[in-house]
Amino acid sequence: MSAQTAPAIEARQVRKHFGHAIALKGVDFNLPQGDFLTLFGPNGAGKTTLVRIFATLAHPSSGEIRLFGQPLSDGSSDLRRRIGVVSHKSFLYGALSASQNLLFYARMFDLPDPQRSVEQILERVGLAHRMHDAVGTFSRGLEQRCAIARALIHEPDLLLFDEPFTGLDPEAADQLAGLLHQLHDSSRTVLLTSHDLNRGAEMADQIAILAAGRIVYQERRAEFAGTDLADLYRTATQKGRA
Amino acid sequence: MWRKIFVLVKKDLLAEWTSKEILSSTVFFSVLVLMVFNFSFEMVTDRMVAGPGILWTTFLFAGILGMNRLFLTEREDGGIEGLMLCPIDRTTLYIAKWLSLLVILSLTEIATLAVFVVFFNIALQGGLIALVAVIVLGTAGLAALGTTFAAMAVRTRTREMMLPMLLIPISVPLLMAAVKCTAAVLGGATLASVGSWLQLLIAFDVIFIAVGYMTFPTILEE
Question: Which of A107, A146, B81, B203 has the greatest number of CB atoms lying within 10 Å of its CB?
């Protein structure tokens, strides 16, 4: 399979344990390039652990993962150029301004014109007017927009959003949803984890449900459209616990 | 790799320059510790007997404060994970953090040394270069231990206690060597007269910088 047609994420029997606690019990997962997938699951199901593994922040205890056809164990450092991550943590420094933070990341990703990239991305997320303000002075919504700018600055092919709506007020959550729609339209591959069934499913090409460390449901929009998501979620998570 | 290290160190120093969180606390703490020692040893006629030990004790405790703070800043908003998402080896992060800590500890020590010279009425004479060499070697070792252990301790709930508990016992050989070399220099002797202690200091630096370099990726990921 060529790198262009290989799935963005391909996971086979991925397991992860922390001492005696088992977080992932053999996850099989496939996300084609250009798709938007929302991963649902109860607290402690292993969503964050799975996203951290895909983001190269943690190693699986066993199993095989390929990103764009390349095994994760080979050259993770280069693969990181193709990944952008947004979580409920901003990965930003409160003492530095938005532009200083983004300039730092632009230089870490070897962007040819860091200053210009920073200005463009701040414009795109609607933060140009606050570029010289310290991130520590931002509201949670503004900080999350700056975090998205950080994740997008190197134009990654794969975006991982780990519960990005956490702590956002309804207005900030709507703005974030708008940004996610834009990303979907830009044909990037997006993996979003969320507890919000309606919002998560609304923009997804596929949804998956992770329960007790296993993927218990994964279908495309045609399959889940029109079904009662709450009922589907309840049945799938009960199946996972059984 | 070195260009990335420069960018990382510059970011740490810029954040510190803006917030002044680490230096303000370490320098203030050092001055307070030296004041306490100054009054405690007021009646001692030959204060130079205890002087080098006091100086390195102050460096150590102020250093622990700085190490904890530097890594806590990274931990607070997931900064360290942001760094781990960059296309660089984890070992590059170790060198950058070690260098940042080295600069911050050195700045604290310059201020501490100035106060020490005044309180303990030290005449540095011709030994300043040798003293700087000893302090740089001792600080390099402390920063190596601090980078490794602070990255480990900052993930625990009892981080304020964990770092000194890990660092102090292992730093004993380094402190002994640094105190012996400092005492020789302040007593007007050459470093050659304490050659074996100097060798221990250098060996400690080499070993713990190498250990930190090799273990840091695992510490970050697990």
Answer: A146
Instruction: Give the residue on B whose Cα is nearest the Cα of A96.
Output: B15
Q: Measured between beta carbons, which residues in chain B are less than 8 angstroms from residue A78? A: 87
The answer to whether the CB atoms of B77 and A93 lie below 8 A apart is: yes
**Domain-embedded: residue A2:** no
A1 occurs within a structural domain: no
Q: What percent of chain A has pLDDT over 70?
A: 96
Question: What are the residues facing A36 on neighbouring strands?
Answer: A190
Query: Over the stretch B34-86, which tens digit does the pLDDT of each residue have?
Result: 989 888 877 777 767 788 899 999 999 999 999 988 888 887 767 888 898 99
Q: Taking CB atoms and an 8 Å cutoff, what residues of chain A touch B7?
A: 104, 107-108
Q: Which residues span the domain enclosing A42?
A: 9-241
Residue A92 is part of a domain; what is its CATH number? 3.40.50.300
**Closest Cα in chain B to A78:** B87
Into how many domains does chain A fold? 1
Answer yes or no: do A96 and B18 touch at CB < 8 A.
Answer: yes
Question: Which has the minimum average pLDDT: A46-55, A213-222, B133-142?
Answer: A213-222
Shortest CA gap A183–chain B (Å): 20
Across the interface, of A90, A109, A110, the residue whose CB is closest to B78 is: A90
Could you say which of B7, B14, B21 has the minimum Cβ distance to residue A96? Answer: B14
Most confident of A178-187, A195-204, B36-45, B80-89: B80-89
